[in-house]
Amino acid sequence: MRDINKWREKCYANVSVKLYSDLQEFRSRYPYKKIKIDGQEWKYILTDGGSKVLLMLPGSTATGESNWREIPRFVPEYRVLSISYPPVKSAEALFKGIVKILDTEQIERMDIFGASMGAAIAHWLIRNYPKRVGKLVLLSIGMPEAETATALRKAAFTFSFLPTASGVRPPACL
To answer: What pLDDT sits at residue 143?
Structure first.
């Protein structure tokens, strides 16, 4: 238990008590749901709310709760679905997982807000399932040029092997 408290202290050291309390309240009100798809665990938030559905698709390194301050604003009018992407091996597996969640939750039609990689996924959804998509908001969609993407992959690979100053990897929140 002390390890968890140390992790919490380090991750939230510069976060106000009010903001941390609000996040914990959000987490207790809207806990993650889990589903296994092809042996991979997927986590997502599905709120209560109105008769319409809003699918919030975050960027590649974000989680379902990344929009935790915005999600409650939509709840009176929408049921909000916000997905965390697991480490899948292909774009097809990613798309299949998202559609499986929609089908499992019996979501036939939705409005979509997609940010960054989420915008690219939203673009794929409207092209492949146009009758399921109502309104569509795309934010910061763009893909790096081939040279930039190659450099980013090399940097990520290299940084994964570098030691930290203390010799210990930082907690997942950093």
So the answer is: 63
